[in-house]
Specification:
Low-confidence stretches: 252-256
Number of domains: 1
Mean pLDDT: 85
Structural class: mainly alpha
Distance between the termini: 22 Å
CATH architecture: Orthogonal Bundle
Number of strands: 2
CATH class: Mainly Alpha
Largest sheet: 2 strands, antiparallel
Length: about 260
């Protein structure tokens, strides 16, 4: 388990706590080590025709940044003042950040129209990095609390997002881990822009992903894309849950 000097929280109740650094890195490490990750990577490699290491990198990257929305200033201030067991809509903020970082890093932008094409199975470039990033990063990040939230949660407008300055060093440590544990160059460029997005509060409201997610929930037809999104989200939820349960059962909150 990661034990890094930390400031910001992923969870805090009256007795237990979990730091953002520890949770993020441990979830990413769990994904990187799970056999399910390599099974999905192997399957997609054969179907789509991309290297399996790219799939593993994308899923690991998702694990590292799936909770980055929790670094929003009001959420962390609540943690500092008292407890923070829920972080309303943090999954949508996380998806915004990861979409924004992609668009800052690469010229082939991801927009609402492209995401909608994915959920209806109308994308031709199914071996492109853009397609795989949307499928394995953006959607699983936005959906990783789907069992506990209603579709109406995804329709709420989220604006004026500001990240807490105290969390910047925590994020730098997560980024350092990601840079040391992935090999895909495109993801390294995006990782640098994850930092720029948070440090400079450069998040642009460019993708109404909550609209797209709510539509995904109403699509009954089982398409390839939806199956892959569910598989990737399942791996993220598996590790997210295992890491959280382990940390919150064994670690007692120290007084600040």
């Amino acid at each position: 388990m990661c034990k890094t000097p930390s400031t910001c929280y992923a969870y805090k109740d009256q007795e237990n706590y979990e730091y953002f650094i520890d949770h993020s890195i441990n979830v990413a490490q769990c994904i990187k080590e799970r056999w399910e990750t390599y099974a999905l990577a192997n399957k997609l490699s054969k179907i789509i025709g991309v290297r399996d290491t790219l799939i593993v990198d994308l899923l690991t990257f998702t694990g590292a940044f799936h909770d980055i929305g929790k670094l929003e200033v009001n959420m962390q201030e609540q943690c500092f003042r008292a407890t923070c067991e829920t972080f309303c809509n943090h999954f949508i903020i996380s998806a915004f950040v990861l979409t924004n970082a992609y668009n800052m890093a690469l010229e082939d932008k991801i927009n609402k129209g492209y995401l909608k094409c994915i959920i209806i199975g109308n994308v031709k470039d199914t071996n492109s990095f853009k397609y795989l990033y949307s499928l394995l990063v953006i959607f699983p990040t936005a959906l990783h609390h789907y069992a506990r939230v209603s579709l109406s949660s995804f329709r709420r407008s989220i604006r004026h997002i500001i990240f807490h300055r105290k969390c910047i060093n925590d994020l730098k440590n997560v980024i350092k881990w990601v840079m040391e544990n992935i090999v895909t160059e495109e993801l390294k460029y995006i990782t640098e822009n994850v930092y720029n997005t948070v440090k400079e509060n450069r998040l642009e409201y460019i993708v109404h992903i909550h609209d797209v997610i709510s539509e995904l929930g109403f699509h009954k037809r089982l398409i390839f894309e939806k199956t892959v999104i569910e598989a990737a989200t399942g791996i993220l939820n598996l590790c997210d849950g295992r890491v959280a349960i382990s940390a919150r059962r064994t670690r007692r909150r120290r007084k600040p």
